[in-house]
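Exercise: predict the structure of this protein bound to HDE.
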Amino acid sequence: MKNKGNANQNKKDEQLEEFRADHKGEKLTTNQGLRLSDTEHSLKAGERGPTLMEDFHFREKMTHFDHERIPERVVHARGFGAHGYFQVYEPMTEYTKAKFLQDPTVKTPVFVRFSTVAGSRGSGDTVRDVRGFATKFYTEEGVYDLVGNNIPVFFIQDAIKFPDLVHSFKPEPHNEMPQASTAHDTFWDFVANNTESAHMIMWAMSDRAIPRSYRMMEGFGVHTFRFVNEQGKARFVKFHWKPKLGVHSLVWDEAQKLAGKDPDFHRRDLWEAIEMGDYPEFELGVQMIEEEDEFKFDFDILDPTKLWPEEEVPVKIIGKMTLNRNPDNVFAETEQAAFHPGHVVPGIDFSNDPLLQGRLFSYTDTQLIRLGGPNFHEIPINRSVAPVHNNQRDGYHRMTIDRGQTSYHKNALQGNDPQPATEAEGGYVHYQEKVEGRKVQKRSDSFKDHYSQAILFWNSMSDVEKQHMIQAFQFEVGKVKSKETRQKIVEMFHNVDGTLAKEIAAAVGVNPPTEPSPAKVTAASPALSQENSVKGAATRKVAILAGNGFNEAEVQPLMMALKEAGAHAMVISSALGEIKSESGQKLEVNQTLLTSDSVMFDAVYVAGGDIVSQKAAADFISEAYKHFKTIGVSSQAAALLAKAAVQPSEPGVITTGSASFHDQFIEALAQHRHWKRQL
Ligand code: HDE
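Solution:
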């Protein structure tokens, strides 16, 4: 089922429609429109003879194929996108004049691309990495891009260090290993020598870097921007996306297995959710700081390695984005989408964050090589729905047929059109911030605290989250060959927490710190812990293990209850086709024990039948157990639990018998994972 969305209201969709071609019922032609009679045989001099130069179809087909690839993004190469719309909850007139943030009845079309950062375009989805969260709003005042990540801070404080950072985490140049992973020497060498990365590393080693789904991640604009209202009053602002489904993660073992079993796990999850009508929803939140309060915090609000604790600066929820349509063509839309933090609309402006300032250059620059010239704004996915008029002309692949004699400003021959607009007419006027200073290659002293918020983050984690972080450090640093680097990392993170440093040292074969940790910060920010996030059973995937002879009386009501809770059941058996219950009722099998795996589901229910004698079924259960997932067992299948060495009394293990089985199962599913098993 393909959702066509709000085709009539959605201006962007109408614009895209002009370029769509489904080719159904059409005759095969060349690119010149000539009908072809054959595309399986090249033109030859004799059946066994050489191919002739004259074969224009062969040449055209092959040449086009030879040029099908474009350079992948230098970072964020692996990604996936979806269309949708954004609606503001109430007019934001007091804070910003941005038109798309005024009228709650207006649906602004959006295109979102989620991504990993380090890996190549074909790398696995579930690797430990930051996730990109880039949103293109097609507003009536032009394109606005909010190009964010799922982590609210960044590794470095000045854009000029970005090439160094990226060179360190990409595969090492001499052997191009490892793919899509920071678990190697050059990255940790960079970290140890650039301690401003400490806070970001804490996030990257946390569960945030292995999300369960793109639908279950927060998004952050990271930098401080400005909101400017009609009266010209400005406030500092940070942007947040809050997923309606809450923030949830995989466990590391599962993430690694998924990268092999289903490298497309996140894109499949997003694609299927949208196809099934489970439209992902994210609320837009803003934190605002008055200009006069700029220096009231114990961090510099221009420093991108710092967040604004939500308890100090509350997040005001101002609207919601709904993703309701998959792309028609991944290359045309997702791959060619060109985001840029400098694409703004009146009412949104920049700050002097030195990381943001550098990004304002980099994004257009990268498109010139990636999309092959200066006209990438004319590619359908990038086109503004607001009309485009200027004196820019020509260049590779120009689509617009600009009419008239003049292409310069000022002119009299065409009455000086197109004319600059006044501010009242929507002309963008940069915020008139007063700036003073000497030209220096320096960083402000107020950027020098590298550890306070790393400690704040650590203090805010639950015990389970801390345990996951320790294991993540042990894994990543454990892959580093240089002993000196491993030692430096232990010393660096001793500044964050003594136990953390000791635990890393113990696993990576270097000396533990001998002095107590100098960490002094005792504050915590509960909003940073995923344990405090929204929970629920909706959209969760449940594997129903069933074979011939399963107990239908127990399965059917569970399937109904799951449906009611908005969860999705998949029947898994030994082979595709149909299985029969004890009473002869048929059930269609969706996947087999061979084609699916426990890591692809949020929970498992064993319905019974001949499948319970299979070792693969017992393995399925023990994996689910190991990954803290909800396990339900029918009366027929109790023996399988014993085979999988799972105690029925364990948290999140629900056995049939009580009348409230279904409620208990769904309640357990809604918990996401049962961490108590670990403790
Ligand atoms: Fe990016 N970044 N970035 N970045 N970034 C790119 O642009 C860059 C940074 C982010 O789905 C590139 O089109 C510099 C922070 C996302 O298409 C490139 C610096 C944040 C995406 C680039 C940063 C991001 C990119 C590569 C340091 C979170 C993918 C291809 C100053 C707020 C967008 C491209 C998509 C992509 C440069 C740091 C987010 C090279 C110089 C901080 C989500 O232009």
